[in-house]
Amino acid sequence: MCLVVPAKLFVLLIVFEVCNGYNFNLEDIFGFVGGLKFNPAEYLKVNKRDIFFNLHTPNYPYPREIDEDNLDLVENDKPVKILLHGWVGNENVRTYQNITREYMKKGNYNIIHVDWRNVAVLPYAVASVCSKDVAKVISSFLLNLNEKKRIPMHQFHLIGISLGAHVAGLAGKQIKEKLNTQIGRITALDPAGPLFEFPPAKESEKLTKYDAKVVDVIHTDGGIVGALKPLGTIDFYPDGGIRPQEGCPLIPVEKDVGDSFFCGHYKAVEYFIRSINSKEFVGVQCKSWLKFKLGHCKGNKDNIMGENLIPERQGSFYLVMK
């Protein structure tokens, strides 16, 4: 059951919703009607019928919906990549297709597209607060794969985009609570900031570095749409993890305000896709973007941003993309 969400971040959340084309009202966004708290649980109760899992493998290049009745389609000797879209996303987004294409070039994987659009399409604050319930369905699915297909937890790699990054983290927590073991890896692509970093959510309600053996984060719109503070065992900050990112305007273009406003946020996804079959992005460990720019971190250890990172090299890493 979803929890009550506090009514904060008035201006930012309105911008966040309007730029994505949602016709908002205050009751929907903030859960307050005439000064009374509105409970999102009355708006939605998440159950497994709201969430779909679609499998791609070299043997099944076209998506096959899977559930507890046909888990045999998953090859238990292959790594499992689980893709989680963000707010207002769905399984048909080009991002899923591009990530899947690059992994198919790389080798043999089980690629599972999680489609939680029935929740993600709701107003941002409601979808955020219901992320824990979405995570329960996902963790239950992974536990089934672990039990029935004998797929060890270290073979699971969750790749979460924006709000999907927190869903991935919550699923990781739930598995750890049940089995006292961690999934192998979570990759968080510019994890959502509103209602998670500002105002700060409890660690039990958001992605943390304890949610998998390796939690790597790519920050590209920190302090605006994405989170800026370190959240993982390894955090990458291309161009400081803030605006403007390579090819993105600092100020949204009036005639294309939606795409230009979120340009930096989506760069994390672009960088990750490019990283799957390359090692082109190398970050240097440093305490801050300023110290990195001033050259104070020369000689520090480095790490490869994206798919091919070195998990033992932990910390915050900065790199220039331009």
From TrEMBL:
PANTHER family recorded: LIPASE, LIPASE DOMAIN-CONTAINING PROTEIN-RELATED
Alphabetical GO CC annotations of the entry are: extracellular space
Highest classification ranks of the organism: Eukaryota, Metazoa, Ecdysozoa, Arthropoda, Hexapoda
Pfam families to which the protein is assigned, alphabetical:
Lipase (PF00151)
Q: Which organism is it from?
A: Agrilus planipennis (Emerald ash borer)
Domain Lipase span(s) in chain numbering: 75-306
Main localization, broad class:
secreted
> What are the boundaries of the signal sequence?
1-21
UniProt keywords, alphabetically: Secreted, Signal
Similarity comment text for this entry: Belongs to the AB hydrolase superfamily. Lipase family.
Q: What is this protein called?
A: Lipase member H-B isoform X1
Q: Where in the cell is it found?
A: Secreted
Secreted as a keyword of this entry, yes or no, is yes
InterPro entries linked: AB_hydrolase_fold, Lipase, Lipase_N, TAG_lipase
Cross-referenced CDD domains: Pancreat_lipase_like
* BP terms from Gene Ontology: lipid catabolic process
The molecular function GO annotations come to:
lipase activity; serine hydrolase activity
